[in-house]
Amino acid sequence: MKNIFLLLIFAFGFTSAQNLIEDSEISENVKEFGRISVSFDLNNAAEFYRLKCENPIYAQFSGGENVFKESLFKNMKSYLDSGVYSVNGIFELIMFVDKEGKLQNFILKPEVPNSNLLYRDLELVMKKIYPTWIPASCSGVPVDSKIRQKINFRTDNFDI
User: Fold this and answer.
1) What is the pLDDT of residues 61-102, one digit of tens each?
2) Which of 51, 61, 65, 64 minimizes the C-alpha distance to 140?
3) Model-level pTM?
4) Alpha helices in 31-102 (DSSP H)
5) Per-residue pLDDT tens digits for 7-30
6) Is residue 37 within 8 Å of residue 129, measured between CB atoms?
7) CB–CB of 76/129 below 8 Å?
8) Hey, CA dihedral for 37, 156, 119, 108, is it positive or negative?
9) Sequence-ordered strand ranges (E) for the chain
10) Nearest to 60 by CA among 125, 136, 130
11) How far apart are CA 3 and CA 5, in angstroms?
12) CA angle at residue 146 from 72 to 41, to 5 degrees?
């Protein structure tokens, strides 16, 4: 009996109790699940660049500033692809309105690395805002104008 017991201890003493697993085998089988959420607020009032004339009337969104912000907020929720980029901080959306009241172009400042994707999505957002602007005027004559809207972006990462 003693011999059998020693033989079993000797036989199983040299076998490994655990298998060694390479780090690459572990990482291949594990997937990290997470979610990125981009939130933003439009609490700042729209700012108008000064017109150098007498009796200036600044451009207005048809329906007012609150309607513009609601439309911008709704479209940003729909078209911003939160899984592609991470933006944090206050950005300035500078919009150029022509003499006919149409939004001609916009600029997003500051420029950050890989901001072309965010710019592309904001371009879709701005195209979806249908109503035209009431153009700015100097002494009754329509003129081109610039409007600045500050947007505070925040990106949150969540593990699932």
Assistant:
1) 988 888 999 999 898 888 876 667 778 889 899 999 999 999
2) 51
3) 0.70
4) 65-79
5) 667 666 655 555 555 555 444 444
6) no
7) no
8) positive
9) 34-41, 47-48, 56-57, 60-61, 89-97, 103-109, 133-134, 136-138, 141-143, 145-159
10) 136
11) 5
12) 30
Contact, 103 vs 97, CB < 8 A?
Answer: yes
User: Can you give the length of the chain in residues?
Assistant: 160
Contact 75, 129 (CB under 8 A): yes
Q: So what's the pLDDT on residue 25? A: 47
Say how many C-beta atoms besides its own lie within 10 A of residue 135's C-beta. Answer: 20
The tens digit of pLDDT for each residue in 112-127 reads: 776 788 888 888 888 8
Q: How many CB atoms lie within 10 A of CB 34?
A: 9
CA distances from residue 81 to 5, 136, 139 in whole angstroms, order as listed: 67, 33, 43
DSSP string, 13-39: HSS-SS----HHHHHHH----EEEEEE
Q: Which two tokens stand for residue 103?
A: 């939004």
